[in-house]
Protein 1
Amino acid sequence: MANKFYDIAIIGGGASGLMLAANLNLAGRSGIILEGSGKLGTKLLMSGGGRCNITHAGSVKEFLIAYGNAGPILRKCLYKHNNLELIEWLHQQGIDTVEENGRIFPSSMKAKDLLNALVSKATANLWQIETNARASALKKEEGLWNIGIDGPGSVIASNLVIASGGITYPETGSDGSVFSVLRDMCISVNEPRPALAPIYVNDYPYSELSGISVSDVIVSIRKNQRKVKSMSGDILFTHEGFSGPAILNISKYAEAGSTLGLEYKKELSELPRRMQRVIEDRAKGPSGDIRTKVLEALLSCDDFIISGVDPRGMVTAGGIALDEIDFSSMKVKKFRNESAHAQGTGALYVIGEAIDADGITGGYNLQLCWSTACTAADSLQFC
Ligand SMILES: Cc1cc2nc3c(=O)[nH]c(=O)nc-3n(C[C@H](O)[C@H](O)[C@H](O)COP(=O)(O)OP(=O)(O)OC[C@H]3O[C@@H](n4cnc5c(N)ncnc54)[C@H](O)[C@@H]3O)c2cc1C
């Protein structure tokens, strides 16, 4: 691999890097995927508990809401490469899909089928794929990217795509190390933190309810008495803390020391029986009597001080700042206009979870990989 030249190099062989390669036929050009770990698509294989909730049904308007403040900024690429296009592409690869409550899965319920399809299409598109090729240094010299690979060796590329994911589950290879390399190049990276993660609180009273879930709960985060965010949905009690969709979706706003408030939209008698017992115990006074006012308060605003968020979030909030990126091409603006030896060389692209955008649960994060990867593929078509 030493000093070999490629037209395009992608750092990261996860969902987004592979989606780009599967959508860009190199025909007469050269391209390489540098995957730092020994395996491709490890996180993709974990998605949806191995079943891979690949996208969501519904209109693009609904998608924009799922990404919070980033939604309107992502608009261009979400419209251009939407969920219907992704589903159609899967069908073309022989992967049928099913819908469960709006969530789209491969009918086989196997993430492996999707990974196989991406790898075989990328290979058919003439991409060279190297595993155990961890990029540890980046330099731009005379309009070309020099990518230092751990161990002896480097790759020279005309165009570079960052598809290195976020920081959660670092054992999969997504350890956020590329962020510090980018910061050294003065590209702003917003502090990455776990999202879609369980929340832990002080004096958690529900360990014994582990595995029980409750629907229709309004969950809120408050900091210094001010509401930061509120959402509603199902929550799940685990042995150590709160989980379930409403908790996962709000977790990126949670910080140690902030308050997590839970408001149950049910009467005590409508809650799971074991939970009723725990709540009644919590409402008992020193004499053992249930204090009605305390009981009402536990149902209408049960507040906990947050002790932390599980670092093993399904996704990363934070990452490469959105204002660094041109969303019609996924190019980093700073390098887009830089003069280079030949027109179209020297561009830097970013796709997937590495950018500072993340969706709620339901297939929105893999759709983001698809939309950003295909947008970059369109642009790289002409490089
Ligand atoms: C348990 C779990 C369940 C999930 N379920 C779903 C779901 O059902 N639906 C959904 O939409 N999303 C889900 N997600 C999120 C989704 O899987 C990710 O958002 C998506 O896989 C991100 O893809 P990516 O290619 O951008 O990043 P990654 O998948 O993280 O891939 C990045 C790749 O880059 C490599 N890399 C990193 N640094 C370097 C380097 N320096 N040099 C070379 N290579 C490097 C890594 O090894 C990795 O292979 C889930 C995530 C988890 C963890």
Protein 2
Amino acid sequence: MPAAVSSRAALRPQLDKRPLRAAHLRVVSEPQVARPAPFLKWVGGKGKLLPALRPLMPKGKFRYAEPFLGGGAVFFDLRAEDRLEHALLCDVGRDLVGACKVVRDALPDLLAQLTAHEAQYLAMDEENRALYFYAVRNRHPADFVMDDVERAARMLFLNRTCFNGLWRENRSGRFNAPHGRYANPGIVQADKLHAASRALQGVDVRQADFRALPELVQDQRIEFVYLDPPYHPLSTTSSFNAYSGGQFSGKAQAELADVCRRLDRQGVRFLLSNSDCGFVRELYRGFDVGTIRAARSINCKADSRGDIDEVVVRNYAN
Ligand SMILES: C[S@@+](CC[C@H](N)C(=O)[O-])C[C@H]1O[C@@H](n2cnc3c(N)ncnc32)[C@H](O)[C@@H]1O
């Protein structure tokens, strides 16, 4: 045994024999409960836009739906503020929706698998970390028997260790972002996952296309919908909107505007965000169309990075 740790007494902390004062007692007070927030890094995530979006939301509590969930920044914020009487969360991404359900229903199993990933990955040098990342990436659920927990752990591991937290899939639905080379990527983040799990209790999470929204909204008596589709590209070279198995086309944007008109006829309030361009403004002509400032890094050309306007469309005023 090395000399420095040969004596147990040397390891024992020295007790402070002074009487306890208030300052001492504060240390043992209740642990802080983390505010729920997205547990995935997500391109187009609305975390930074929450201060601009909050005043645009209806007041009070409501039955809520979010059909383009992504990292769920708006959902988690509304949940933290106790604004939701009911919530329906949908996204077309199979891995994303599966991960949300596992965080909601099987968090201890997920944490165990993430802890195992983290222990192996952090013990490796850079070259072996890359090999480990690509081995996990290549172990695709379509080719291997994989239960929901393993699939969710795979997704979270890849999301935390890939380049820029970019969850990007090719046309066959295979995640294809490269390795990210972060010194300490924070693979487990147990506090964040516990907070997200609490926020997701009782929430209806579904893999669904936005075109299914009007029926779901009717069945669940939804009162307010926030829609954050992939941005319509501002130029032919500038877009990232290939989250799940392909681009979100102009035709899809037009179908989404039809869905919003249907929500309006159903008497449901909606707030939608998108890129500020003539095409989007034209699609929502007749509704209240405004702008907020958004920081972009991936959607625009390299020479036009920085803050730009984002369109917000509403069918109500508050
Ligand atoms: C801009 S992101 C949403 C970001 C989210 N608001 C946040 O704060 O993280 C758009 C989402 O739409 C999803 N999506 C793409 N096409 C879809 C479709 N046809 N139906 C439903 N969701 C779709 C993508 O998987 C992606 O998660």
Protein 3
Amino acid sequence: MNYEDIKKLLFKIDPETVHTTVEKLTGLATYCPFVSGFMTKQSLHEDDILVQELFGTTFRNPVGLAAGYDKDGKMAGFLPALGFGYIEVGTVTPLPQDGNPKPRLFRHPEDETLQNAMGFNNGGMVALEKRLEKITPNVIPIGINIGKNKLTTPENTIDDYKKLVSRLESYGDYLVVNISSPNTPGLRDLQSEEFIENLFKEIKPLTQKPIFLKIAPDLEIDTAVSLCKKAVESKADGIIATNTTNDYSLIDGVEHMGGLSGKVLTEKSGALFEEIAKELYKKTTLISVGGIDNGEEAYRRIKAGASLVQVYTALIYKGPALLKEINSTIAKNLEKDGFKNIKEAIGANR
Ligand SMILES: Cc1cc2nc3c(=O)[nH]c(=O)nc-3n(C[C@H](O)[C@H](O)[C@H](O)COP(=O)(O)O)c2cc1C
């Protein structure tokens, strides 16, 4: 049975139910070397041309799993078998929380788009720590994406991020400050120069690990670029652009809730990434995410200045074969363009 057939069945079931079932099955598959061996053979494209060192960590390829798919690190032991170069767990909050009422995850298959209003449903940092402890040392690099609890007051917001960094930093290869989810009231308002400066002043001394800032695609381009510049001046180690969009005009007849991801985001996210890269390429590490669903698009983002890319929604629409397609296409393009290693292509269009 190919993925298109499996998808026909899966898409008859509520998306969050599918997700929790997959989470449980992959959790079990971690203990079946036969399954992970088989999946690795199917999905991993191994090629030295894709291997790079970034902030002291080796990445076997540039394609990572975006935050939100494995919020609790329950699948982190198995996900390397899907061929990723790295994975990002979270968003995790200090305390466990339920997230928004269900239903809160919707498919728009005709647009290869997802709409989610999850609201950081997760088991909290202590539970994540226990799971990550079990899989350390990691097979592939792990990023840990952190966010504030919904009920944390504005005065205590920075404290949430401090707690998360202190507790989890030793388990990740990098950390990500998420202030760009549309589903936690007031979170995106933290995307201000003042907050970013104060936040990084407080959290940077707590770890030697790189800390990225993840931003929304819905800011005015100039504002977004200024915020990213401010983050880098404040010693952020990199930028992840972008989170989901709440520009509902991108899709017809859509309910105005949550964030849209996937194909509708490709142009918007890609355009913002270009502008950020114009300013910050070579000054910091850039990760591009948003509507990447094939190798050509991933290669475009790399040449625009992305050291790494991430995918989420395309994995749902195209299945795990996506990873092999993206990585083999990047490798083919690198060879065609005469690059000996991916490092040489990063920002080649700048
Ligand atoms: C169901 C769902 C949950 C998500 N949860 C998070 C999250 O917890 N933290 C975060 O930073 N981004 C989250 N995202 C955003 C993704 O990490 C990514 O930035 C966005 O979906 C764009 O990439 P894509 O078009 O490849 O999906 C979520 C996305 C989806 C679809």
Protein 4
Amino acid sequence: MGQFDMVKDFFLGISRSRISLIGGMIVTVTTPFLLSYMLADTVWHIKNPYFGAAVYLALGPVFLGGLAMIFVGAFFFRGERDVHLFTLQYMRRYFTEPDMFGRLRRNVFLIVLLTSVNFAVFSMFLYRAYHYMESTQFCGQFCHVVMAPEHTAYENSPHSRVSCVECHIGSGADWFVKSKISGARQLLAVATATYPTPIQTPVHGLRPARDTCEECHRPELFHGDKLNVTKRFLPDEQNSTVHDVLLMKIGSAGDRAQSSHGIHWHVAPENKITYRATEHNRMVIPEVTLTKADGTTTVFRTSDADELLAGTGTEGDMREMDCIDCHNRPSHIYLQPDEALDRKLAEGDIPQELPYIKQQALEWITADYETTEVARQSITDGLNSWYKEKYPQLISDQPELLAKAIEGVVKAYSENVFPDMKVTWGTYVNHISHGPDFDIGCFRCHDDMHESPDGKTISADCNTCHTLLAIEEKNPQILKTLQGDDL
Ligand code: HEC
Ligand code: HEC
Ligand code: HEC
Ligand code: HEC
Ligand code: HEC
């Protein structure tokens, strides 16, 4: 036998087994591509979701499959010449016969080298593949039609630099595994087109917010009030600017220095709030239970609670309140038509100088369209013809004004409405407020109708949560005072 017997036998074994041979070919062909792609990704952090999918979901597994085939073939499907590769007798001979052991020792270097190269490629692959599967590109863009609403809203939100997994998975191995199982289910649903449109909310398997939001935010350290100044625009000829000025009583979840109070009182460790909803969507909450640290409980119920909960089984949909019961849209924030246009006007994407643009745009973006393309066309045509008829002089003098407005209006629509996924205005309710009709968000509980046995109610007093300093005022005195204009 020659010097590199074991290595030679190994290759012989491979060449004699068709399975190994095919595996060998696969590995030879894929390795240079895989290595150079992974290197490119490591250096340049390639953001294209399909590049990642091609490398980590297709090429990588093919490479691993090839490797596996080589070994399976060499072990189990030997060819005409029985090479006994890696069998017990073969090993025993190598380790007991001094002559052969000497040869093995000489080959150790080669074996160690080959194994470490394999190990390096393999672990680099696992590492990069892990990062890809956790990336916003994979979660948000790979299934682009399905995730378009969530991804678009996310991109425009204050959390656009926080990756999807930081809220949806968080840290720890158990949630990682859970997420991969549900991820596989979701990929299957996309592949077989059995996903719901729109995607259901709330997310019932969502990790408790304590493990995600609180990795970054600490409501026990909040304090004081927060001034919210919102610019709005009226549907009149001037698109007049008005202001809402609210002092939000943010409060605190309580820390050593201060006791819990205000809005974040709900998430203080000493206050545990559980509630029962009539349906999975948590829109109607007939019963709320407050459990204090000393164990005393107060149950607040509406007068029709028994009736409402009767049809829902014995429990109702029971849940412990956390951040998500108010901040259910921290990142996927869909605006109402009015708000969406106000934002674009405030940011200058829609020029305020264009008469009646708020009123006209509101009409066009709230109509029903089959696709975003149809919407874009109809909005463009509709606004063009209206302004040509009513303001021909203005449109011929300053055509860019209308062109810019149309761009802004189409954006206000396409950032919030996604006909492909049946997401339209109001599909996803935001619970951080109560809405103009006082029926969602805080008012699911704070309606003065939830009563404890001793007659206390969950307060609907307008000053519980905020002080209304100005509502839709053109020149609010409070802003002049704050800006020092009246000194
Ligand atoms: C700041 C935290 C946060 C980030 C970042 C985030 N999400 Fe979410 N997401 C949520 C919360 C909270 C909900 C659930 C709302 C509920 O249960 O009412 C949600 C819900 C969803 C839903 C269910 C449909 C819906 O809108 O309720 C999908 C799908 C989703 N997210 C995908 C994504 C994707 C994709 C990304 C990354 C591009 C992402 N999320 C990033 C917090 C986040
Ligand atoms: C990885 C860190 C991280 C996680 C996790 C995270 N956030 Fe944030 N959040 C931030 C940062 C950073 C900002 C500030 C963004 C800015 O000011 O532009 C922010 C801002 C906010 C704001 C203020 C938004 C505004 O309009 O000014 C709220 C409310 C909020 N987060 C709630 C949540 C909730 C609820 C969760 C859990 C579902 C969450 N965050 C998870 C980092 C995080
Ligand atoms: C009872 C409802 C409610 C709960 C529960 C709640 N929040 Fe808030 N939070 C609010 C409201 C309302 C605001 C003010 C929003 C605004 O700017 O108008 C707010 C503001 C915030 C802000 C912005 C603070 C600032 O100074 O700008 C952050 C961050 C935040 N919440 C994080 C959290 C986290 C994390 C949790 C869970 C531990 C949580 N909240 C639980 C209602 C709630
Ligand atoms: C699931 C029910 C529920 C929801 C939803 C809810 N709350 Fe509450 N809230 C309560 C209960 C219960 C109390 C305590 C009532 C009592 O003991 O008088 C309370 C108390 C408060 C208090 C007084 C805290 C103190 O200092 O004692 C504020 C402020 C408040 N809530 C704000 C909000 C805001 C803002 C929202 C919406 C963003 C909201 N709540 C949503 C149940 C709820
Ligand atoms: C349980 C807490 C709570 C109570 C009670 C409450 N609000 Fe609000 N209100 C909020 C929150 C939270 C917001 C949202 C602030 C934001 O968007 O930043 C809000 C916003 C508003 C706005 C601004 C418009 C908007 O939708 O952004 C107005 C106006 C308003 N409230 C009026 C009232 C009036 C009038 C009452 C009394 C009938 C009342 N609120 C009672 C929590 C409350």
